[in-house]
Amino acid sequence: MEVEKIFEVLLYSVPALITGMIAYYFFKEHTKNEDGRRRFLLQKDMQVNTMPLRLQAYERMAIFLERITPSKLLIRVAPTSSNKEDYESLLIASIEQEFEHNLSQQIYVTDECWNIITAAKNATIQLIRKASLLEKTETANKLREVVLTEMLEKRAPSDAALSYIKQEVGDMW
């Protein structure tokens, strides 16, 4: 008789255990799906709010790169004297000031993009310094001429960075 009772308890327990395991599995999957849905909605909401800020940052960095393009920089920043060292310092200070004004934009652009922008800034400064060191560069106007001549022969460092920004913004869509 006792064996029959144990067998009877097992007959009732096994279906209950199976039903309990299935319910647990479905509840676990439902919770996982709900968590994924919430994360998706949160990410979607954040993207809607941050997309305009990111685009604005890319716009500002594009303007920065345009402003430090040597040909445009030399037109915008006129020499105050004929001393080439003073003009070199003025040009570099103008680039650094533009860069510092846009430092906060690095939060919204990728690290790789920011590194390329920084490299373009440094390459532009280096180009101005090299032109100033040439023996044929004696005055501020001659420095302008040498840098502009250099830009006729090769692309400005900011052009590559600007192309990268355009590509990165294109990839956002």
Task: Sum this structure up briefly.
With 173 residues, the protein is an all-alpha fold.
Give, in order, the helices and strands: HHHHHH
Strand content: under 5%
Characterize the biggest β-sheet: none
Radius of gyration, in Å, reads: 32 Å
Mean of pLDDT: 90
Q: What structural class do helix, strand and pairing data support? A: mainly alpha
Helix content: over 70%
Shape: rod-shaped
How many helices does DSSP assign? 6
**Beginning-to-end CA distance, first to last residue:** 74 Å
- Tell me the number of strands: 0
* Unreliable residue runs: none
Describe the structure.
With 173 residues, this protein is an all-alpha fold. Helices cover 83% and strands 0% of the residues. α1 packs antiparallel against α6, α3 crosses α5 (140-153) and α4 (111-133) packs antiparallel against α6 (157-172). The mean pLDDT is 90.
What is the secondary structure topology, with strand pairs?
Layout: H1 2-67, H2 70-76, H3 84-101, H4 111-133, H5 140-153, H6 157-172
Core attributes:
173 residues, mainly alpha
